[in-house]
Design a protein that fits this description.
Blueprint (H helix, E strand, L loop, with lengths): L1 E11 L2 E12 L5 E5 L4 H4 L1 H11 L8 E7 L11 H12 L10 E3 L2 E2 L5 E2 L4 H10 L4 E5 L3 H4 L6 E5 L2 H8 L13 H6 L15 H13 L3 E4 L6 H7 L9 H14 L14 E2 L7 H5 E2 L4 E2 L1 H4 L4 E4 L7 H5 L2 H6 L1 E6 L2 E6 L3 E6 L18 H8 L4 H5 L3 E4 L5 H5 L9 H18 L13 H7 L4 H14 L3 H17 L7 H11 L4
Parallel strand pairs: 3-4, 5-8, 8-9, 10-17, 10-18, 11-14, 14-17
Antiparallel strand pairs: 1-2, 2-4, 6-7, 12-13, 15-16
Length: about 500
C-alpha cells in the first residue's frame, strides 16, 4: 500500500478553498478506481480522463485498487480542475515516475485524453489564495497563465501536457516560470470605447446627470420617448468612468474568472464592465443562484455599469430582487446547499418610456394609451425601487436643428469629461482614506454626518423641499450625497445652496 498527497484547490462562490488530493494504491484486491469526497459528476468522470492521459503520456497505469480522496470530505467539489492533481498523485503513489517533494506546490487543471491540458475556472482567486497560504509554485494550464502571472511571490508554471510536467518535476527538462506582469502599465492604458459623448447630439442636461453619476457612483433613471438617445447615453457612460484601481481590477477579474467570462487575452480586466441584460432575463440570471450558486448580472457589473433597458418591462419579482443589492452593494443568496455572498457595487442606469406607446408628452405625435394603461405601466416599478435611484432625468427628443447639424465643434469629448470625473473621484479617495468607502454613493447615514458639511442656506432649502415634496429619509440622504458629488466636481469642500438645488432637480421624478 502506498499513499501520496497532492495540493489543489477549488472555488465555492468567489472564495477559494484548499483541497488535498489523497491517493491510495492498494495492491491487494480487485483492480478499481474510485473518487470520494463529495465529487460532482464532472469530478467523478476524471477517472477516465486521467487513465487515458497517463497511458498516452507513456506511463503505465497501476493495475491495482486506486482510491482518491478529495479532502476535506464535507466540501462539495465540482469542475475538472482536479485532473492534473489526481494524475500526479497516482504517478507519485505508484513510486515509478515522480520522486520530487510536492509539499509546497499546488496543481490545477483539466487533462485531455491525449495528456494535454485545458483551461479551468477560477485561476486568479486560487493563485492569490496559494500565495497567502505560502505555496512556492502553482502549476496550471498555459491558457490560465496570464491570470496567475499578476500574482507576485509565487512561481507560475504553465503546463502544456502531462509528459512535460513529469519531466519538469523530475528535473529532466525544466519549464521556466512565467514572468511577473506589470499590471500598472495595463491600468494606465486608455481603453477604446464604441460610443463617445461627442457623438451624442444635444441632451446636455442628461450628459450633466451622467457626469454627476459617474463622479459619485450614483444610480440613474433615464425617461423619454423612443429614439431620444437613452440607450446611446447609457452606452457612453463607461467612457467617462474613472480608471479601475488595482484592487478593483482584481475584484472584477476574480468574478469573471470564476464565471468563465474571462477570455484571458489580458491578465486583468482593466476596463469597467458594462452589462446590458435583456428585459426577459430571469431572477437567477440577474441576481445569481442556480443549483450550483453562481454570480448574476449584478455581480458581473461590479465596479461598472448595469444598464436595464425597458426597465418597467422586467418582471415585478425580478425588479424587487434589486432592493437589497442597490442598498448594500452585495447580494446574499441562500439555498439548501449553503449561503454565498457576491459583491454588487454597480452603477444602475434604468431607461423607460413615459407610457406603453412612448408618445406621452410629445407635441406632434398623439399618445394612444388610455389613463388606465399609463397608470398600470408606471405601477410596474414599485416606489421603493424608484426611491433607491439617486438621479432621475427626462430625456426629450432631439431638436431638428441639432439633429441635422453636420458637426458640433462645441461638443465635449468623453476624455475631457473623464478628467473632471477623475478629479472628483480623487477628492473622494482622499476624503475616504482609511475607510471602506470608494465614492460618495457608498456613504451610509453615519458617514454622511461625518464627511459632509452643508451651509445654513443649503440646509434651509433642503428643509423647505422636504416639507413641500414629502421626501423619505432615504431620499433626504441621497440628495445630500448627490450634492456632495456636485461640490466635488466644482472643487468645493462645502455643500452650498446651488449644489442642493441642482441635486433636488435631479431627485424630482415626473409622474
Amino acid at each position: 500500500m502506498s499513499i501520496a498527497k497532492v495540493n489543489s484547490a477549488t472555488v465555492v462562490g468567489l472564495e477559494p478553498f484548499e483541497v488535498v488530493v489523497e491517493v491510495n494504491i492498494e495492491e491487494k484486491g480487485f483492480p478499481g478506481f474510485s473518487i470520494v469526497g463529495l465529487p460532482s459528476r464532472e469530478v467523478d468522470e476524471a477517472k477516465e480522463r486521467v487513465r487515458s492521459a497517463i497511458k498516452n503520456a507513456g506511463c503505465e497505469f497501476p493495475d491495482h485498487r486506486i482510491t482518491v480522496n478529495l479532502a476535506p470530505a464535507d466540501l462539495p467539489k465540482k469542475g475538472s480542475a482536479f485532473d492534473i492533481a489526481i494524475a500526479i498523485g497516482i504517478l507519485k503513489a505508484s513510486g515509478n515516475y515522480i520522486s520530487a517533494n510536492l509539499s509546497h506546490k499546488l496543481f490545477l487543471g483539466e487533462l485531455s485524453l491525449d495528456g494535454s491540458t485545458r483551461g479551468v475556472l477560477g485561476a486568479l482567486p486560487i493563485s492569490l489564495y496559494a500565495k497567502e497560504k505560502g505555496f512556492t509554485h502553482i502549476y496550471l494550464p498555459s491558457v490560465n497563465g496570464n491570470e496567475s502571472s499578476v500574482v507576485s511571490n509565487i512561481s507560475t508554471i504553465c503546463v502544456e501536457n502531462l509528459p512535460s510536467l513529469i519531466a519538469h518535476l523530475e528535473g529532466e527538462k525544466l519549464i521556466y516560470k512565467n514572468n511577473l506582469l506589470d499590471f500598472e502599465d495595463l491600468l494606465n492604458d486608455t481603453p477604446t470605447y464604441e460610443t463617445d459623448f461627442c457623438d451624442v447630439v444635444g441632451q446636455e442636461h442628461a450628459k450633466r446627470a451622467l457626469e454627476i453619476g459617474a463622479s459619485g457612483g450614483h444610480n440613474l433613471s433615464l425617461s423619454g420617448p423612443p429614439g431620444s438617445g437613452k440607450t446611446m447615453l447609457a452606452r457612453a457612460l463607461p467612457s467617462i468612468l474613472p480608471k479601475l484601481t488595482l484592487e478593483e481590477a482584481l475584484e472584477v477579474t476574480k468574478i469573471y474568472s470564476v464565471c468563465g467570462n474571462f477570455q484571458g487575452k489580458s491578465p486583468l480586466i482593466f476596463q469597467r464592465p458594462f452589462r446590458s441584460p435583456h428585459h426577459t432575463t430571469s431572477r437567477v440570471g440577474l441576481i445569481g443562484g442556480g443549483s450550483y450558486i453562481t454570480p448574476g448580472e449584478i455581480s458581473l457589473a461590479h465596479r461598472g455599469v448595469l444598464f436595464l433597458d425597458e426597465f418597467p418591462e422586467l418582471p415585478r419579482h425580478v425588479l424587487e430582487a434589486l432592493r437589497q443589492p442597490l442598498e448594500d452593494g452585495f447580494v446574499t443568496i441562500s439555498r439548501a446547499s449553503g449561503t454565498l455572498t457576491f459583491p454588487s457595487r454597480f452603477t444602475l442606469v434604468a431607461s423607460s418610456n413615459p407610457c406603453p406607446c412612448g408618445n406621452l408628452g410629445r407635441a406632434k405625435v398623439a399618445c394612444v394609451c388610455n389613463i388606465s394603461q399609463i397608470r398600470n405601466y408606471k405601477k410596474r416599478v414599485s416606489g421603493p425601487i424608484w426611491d433607491r435611484i439617486d438621479i432621475h432625468v427626462d430625456v426629450p427628443l432631439v431638436e431638428v436643428e441639432d439633429l441635422t447639424r453636420q458637426k458640433n465643434n462645441n461638443a465635449e469629448t468623453s476624455s475631457k469629461i473623464r478628467e473632471r470625473v477623475q478629479k472628483a473621484r480623487d477628492i473622494q479617495k482622499k476624503r475616504f482614506k482609511g475607510t471602506r468607502l470608494v465614492c460618495n454613493s457608498d456613504m451610509s447615514t453615519k458617514d454622511i454626518k461625518n464627511f459632509t458639511t452643508l451651509t445654513n442656506q443649503a440646509q434651509d432649502i433642503l428643509k423647505i423641499a422636504l416639507t413641500k415634496y414629502g421626501f423619505s429619509a432615504r431620499s433626504y440622504f441621497k440628495i445630500i450625497k448627490v450634492a456632495q458629488t456636485i461640490a466635488d466636481i466644482e472643487g468645493e469642500s462645502t455643500i452650498n445652496a446651488n449644489h442642493i438645488s441642482e441635486a433636488l432637480g435631479f431627485r424630482l421624478k415626473a409622474d
